[in-house]
Amino acid sequence: MAGTRKQNRTGRRILAAGAGLATVGALVAAMPAGAAQDTAAGQGGTNGKGWGRMVDVQLLSFNDLHGNLEPPAGSSGQVSRVKPDGTTEKIDAGGVEYLATHLRQARQGNRYSITAAAGDMVGASPLLSGLFHDEPTIGALNGMDLDVTSVGNHEFDEGAAELSRLQNGGCHPTAGCFDGGKKFGGADFPYLAANVTSEKTGKPLLDPTFVWEKDGVKIGFIGVTLEGTPNVVTAEGVKGLKFGDEVETINKYAKILERQGVKSIVALVHEGGLPASANYDYDCDSPVAGGGVSGPITEIAKNVDPQVDALVTGHTHNAYVCTIPDPAGKPRLVTSAASFGRLYTDTTLTYDRATKDIVRTAVDSANHAVTRDVPKAPDMSRLIGQWQDLAAPIANRPQGWIAADINGRGSTAYEKPLGDVIADAQLAGLAPAGKGGAQVAFMNPGGIRADLVHKASGAEGDGVVTYGEAFAVQPFTNMMNVVDLSGADLVEALKQQVSGSNLNAVKILQVSRGLTYTLDMTKSGADRVVTGSIKLNGEAIDPSKSYRVAMNEFLAGGGDGFAALAKGTNKLVGASDLDLFNEYLAANSSATAPLAVPAADRITVVR
C-alpha cells in the first residue's frame, strides 16, 4: 500500500541520508562531528544499532513568511548585522528561491534534521500568492520540505474553512481550481492549533501536536497562536472559534506528550518579543540571559513548563536568539527569524537516547540571513514562473506613479508616509455624500504590508506603481465602512492607541489630511494623547458633535484594541481599501506629475 505524501517524503529523506553508506566508517563520516564521535564510542552499545547515546538533531526554523515567494522589495527585503569593525551592514535577503537553497545547504551532513515554522506562512500575502488564495505558498513550503508549523493569526484571515482547505486540499469554493484546473493537494505538513477550539464542541480545530521520529529519536511539537488572535483578525475570520491561553495550552499538551513517552518538546508559538537591537546577530543574552528582548513572549517563556525544551516564536517580525530562564530557573532557548523569509534559525538540539530528552546545556542556535548570492532553487523558480504567468495580466497593470520611495512597512515612525497616502485615499473615495460623507479616515498601521518602491520591480519602469505592488501594500481587500462617531468616541479611540491593550506596544492610527494632534511620549498611558490638541481642519473636536469616520471593516469591528471605533452607527459599506487606494493613485499621479512623498506632519510627537 502506498504511503501518504508526507510518509513518502520522509522516506526519501531517510534513504538520501543513508544512500551508499556501506560501512560504519562511512556512516560516521556522514554525520555531524559530535554525533559521529558518540556513534563511534557507542558502537556495540546496548541499543544494538551502532548509535551513540548523544545525537545532534538539527532544527531549522522560520516564521511569518506571509506568502513572500518573490524577494521582498525595499526595506522589507533587507536585514541588518554588525560588521567586525562595529558598523552596521544592510543585506538584501529573502525570496523562496534562495530560502530553499539555504535550507538545503544547511541540511547537508545532518542525518537528523527537522524544519519547523511558527505561523503566518500565509495571509497578508503579495499578489503572486494572495491572488490564488495562497495555494502557491503552500506548494513552495511543500517543496522546501517543511515538517510542521503552528497556525498564526493570519491563517484565519479567510476563516476556519479556508484554513482547513489549505491543510487538506481541494479547490477554492468560489474561485475554483487555479493551476490548469488541477485539484489543489493541500499541505504535506501539519498545521498545529492546540489553543484554537470549536465553540460548539470544545475540540481543537486542527492537530494540537506532532511528533517527529527517526531511528528512535522523538521530538514533539506543540503549536499555538496568540490568545489575542480575535483582536487582530476580522470577526468573520474567527467566527465559531475560541482561542485559549498560550501557557496553559502548552503546559497541558506537554504533559500529554510526556505520558506518550515524548520527553523532547519544542513549542511553536505565534507570539513574539521586542528585541533591543534591529541587528539579527546581536547578543540577546546581554547583560543577562534574555536581557535583550521584552514583550509578550518573555512572560510566556518564563511560565511554560520546564518539560518544554525550546520555543520557536513569531508574530512581531523581529529577530532574536535568547535564553530565557524557565520556571525552574534553567536557561531555555527562545528564537525568532524576523519575517518574509529573510532569515532562518539553525539550532542544534543534543538528544540523549537514555533519557529521551534534550540536553539543554548543549543547545546551540543562531540566525542566518537568506542572502541572494546563492544559486536559485530550480524547483522554486519553476513554481514562481508558473504562477507569474497566471497572474501577469493583472499584476503588471500600471496604477500610478511615485516620485520616490514612499515607506509604509519599512518606516519606523509613528506616522508613516504611506499611511498618510492610504488614509487620504480612503477619505477621498468616501467623502462624497453619496459614498458615505466621510470627514476623516483612520488606517491601522499593521494593515500596511509593504512600501511603495520607486525602483522598477519588472519591466514597468522606475516610479510606476503596478497593481501587484499596490496589492502588496493593501492585500486584505477589506471593505470600507463609514460610520457616525461622537467627538468623545473619536478622542477615546485616539487614546486607545497608547492605553489598554496597546499600552506597552502602541498602535498609532494613520490619519487623513485635516486631522492633527500632539502625541506626548514623555507621559504615560492615555495621557500621551494631548486632548486639547486634537483638531479637524483647524477646529477642536467637539465631544458632543457627530462625525462621519471612514475605516476598514477590521477597525470598525474594534480590531487592534480600538473598542471606541466599534461604537459607530449609521454604517455605510463602501468599496474595498485596495480599490480606493488604486483609484487615488490613478487620480493623483501621472508620468509627468508623480505622487510626492507626504511630509508626515499630522501627528506632532514629543519625546
TrEMBL record:
Cross-referenced Gene3D superfamilies: 3.60.21.10, 5'-Nucleotidase, C-terminal domain
E.C. designation(s): 3.1.3.5
Keyword Nucleotide-binding found: yes
A GO term, aspect molecular function: nucleotide binding
GO biological process terms, semicolon-separated: nucleotide catabolic process
Residue ranges annotated for the 5'-Nucleotidase C-terminal domain, each copy included: 409-566
Protein name: 5-nucleotidase
